[in-house]
């Protein structure tokens, strides 16, 4: 249910509505507008990247994942609702609010992922992760669908983006708050507090534990290599997520309503991809499943770069949806498979660090490419494709079973 709840934020704010609104209305389509958007996200991801391992280690020691998740959820809801105040020219305020809301969203995403090994045993990690991701896309679909109804109604009355986009932020915040309630009412923390130093020394203890994990990463060489692999292929994924509506409007001439309809369809295919590949992963294996999705991403980028007509672009977008759901779910499951029993939040914190690093690398590369090429989004998309190729090469050197044995031998 938490995956269902938080997906509306990424779907509406990061992917479908506010990103394009920021570029075209708030920043008035200035040459650097796309770069400013991606740089804003990069700042928030850098903050998440620096704090995630410490938050994870502290949550493990104090069995506090649920309490921290409640705090980050409340903060994300508040800052998302605050985006309703943004209008033309409010570039600095918009950047601050987006960075803050995205920081708390990403921190909560790491925390909820760390519950996965408590909810499923090794052989079922892919299946349960797939259920979560597929429900997540359905949640994004519902929130975006409500926004579409509202936007269509307002456009029929002659309203412009600065009239209806702020209200979609309130819709998104409200849906996040309401749909996350079952998580905090019914889900329980199964972890037990671990012996630690005095409370005032908790942060130092957590920091030292994370350093220990990083320093002894050679014992988890497959996990370490997969983190590097994640940085590269997720750089491509995060670039696509961050600029989907921007690309649709700037390169393909879509309107706000057209972009929302497109992202709605992509959420359906993403949900199907997460659900289907969750089943496939448990049968085919973690590495082959991820390799298959990366090959799909390479084809997707080639189609988007080539597309001159809307049908071809729609094909590329829906293939991206299938690959998005599959690659996100499969990656999270493999991290769970390679994680020692008593270090779930810590290792998922390292996973979060890798994903957030990629969330800086991919979108900023895309934004810089559009700025340097005078707004050529097709060139930027082609450059993005190289990250998937690099990820596929790195993936080839990972042995999931060897990594699982290493995790089993290092549970203390």
Walk me through this protein's architecture.
The chain has a single domain, classed as MFS general substrate transporter like domains (Growth Hormone, Chain: A, Up-down Bundle), CATH 1.20.1250.20. α10 packs antiparallel against α15 (377-395). The longest helix is centred in the middle third of the chain and has 32 residues, at 125-156. By secondary structure, the protein is mainly α. The model has no long low-confidence stretch (mean pLDDT 86). It is built from 16 helices and no strands. The protein has helices at 2-16, 18-26, 33-62, 65-82, 91-113, 116-119, 125-156, 161-186, 202-215, 221-252, 256-284, 286-306, 310-337, 344-372, 377-395, 400-408.
List low-confidence stretches: none
Structural class: mainly alpha
Largest sheet: none
Q: How helix-rich are the residues, as a percent range?
A: over 70%
Radius of gyration: 20 Å
Tally of discrete structural domains: 1
Shape type: globular
Average the pLDDT over all residues and give the rounded result: 86
The ordered string of helix (H) and strand (E) elements is: HHHHHHHHHHHHHHHH
DSSP strand content: under 5%
Count the DSSP helices. 16
Tell me what the CATH architecture is: Up-down Bundle
How many individual β-strands? 0
CATH topology-level fold name: Growth Hormone, Chain: A
Distance between the termini: 31 Å
């Amino acid at each position: 249910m938490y995956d269902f709840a938080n997906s509306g934020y990424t779907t509406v704010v990061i992917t479908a509505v506010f990103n394009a609104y920021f570029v075209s209305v708030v920043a008035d389509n200035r040459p650097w507008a796309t770069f400013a958007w991606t740089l804003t996200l990069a700042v928030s991801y850098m903050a998440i990247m620096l704090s995630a391992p410490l938050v994870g280690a502290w949550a493990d020691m104090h069995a506090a994942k649920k309490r921290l998740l409640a705090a980050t959820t409340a903060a994300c809801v508040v800052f998302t609702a605050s985006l309703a105040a943004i209008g033309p020219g409010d570039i600095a305020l918009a950047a601050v609010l987006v960075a803050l809301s995205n920081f708390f969203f990403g921190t909560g995403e790491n925390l909820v992922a760390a519950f996965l090994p408590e909810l499923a045993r090794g052989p079922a990690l892919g299946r349960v992760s797939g259920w979560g991701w597929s429900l997540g896309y359905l949640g994004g679909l519902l929130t975006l669908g409500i926004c579409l109804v509202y936007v269509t109604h307002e456009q029929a009355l002659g309203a412009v983006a600065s009239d209806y986009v702020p209200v979609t932020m309130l819709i998104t915040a409200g849906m996040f708050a309401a749909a996350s309630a079952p998580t905090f009412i019914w889900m329980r923390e199964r972890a037990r507090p671990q012996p630690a130093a005095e409370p005032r020394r908790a942060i130092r203890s957590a920091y030292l534990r994370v350093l220990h994990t990083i320093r002894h990463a050679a014992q988890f060489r497959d996990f370490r290599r997969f983190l590097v692999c994640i940085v590269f292929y997720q750089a491509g994924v995060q670039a696509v997520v961050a600029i989907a509506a921007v690309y649709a409007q700037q390169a393909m001439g879509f309107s706000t309503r057209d972009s929302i309809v497109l992202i709605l369809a992509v959420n359906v295919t993403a949900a199907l991809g997460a659900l289907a590949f969750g089943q496939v992963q448990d049968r085919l294996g973690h590495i082959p499943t991820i390799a298959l999705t990366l090959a799909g991403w390479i084809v997707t980028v080639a189609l988007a770069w080539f597309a001159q007509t809307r049908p071809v672009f729609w094909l590329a977008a829906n293939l991206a949806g299938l690959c998005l759901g599959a690659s996100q779910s499969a990656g999270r499951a493999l991290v769970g498979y390679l994680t020692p029993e008593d270090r779930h939040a810590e290792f998922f914190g390292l996973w979060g660090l890798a994903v957030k690093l990629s969330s800086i690398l991919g979108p900023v590369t895309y934004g810089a490419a559009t700025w340097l090429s005078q707004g050529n989004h097709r060139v930027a998309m082609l450059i993005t494709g190289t990250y998937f190729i690099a990820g596929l090469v790195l993936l080839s050197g990972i042995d999931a079973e060897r990594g699982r044995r290493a995790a089993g031998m290092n549970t203390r």
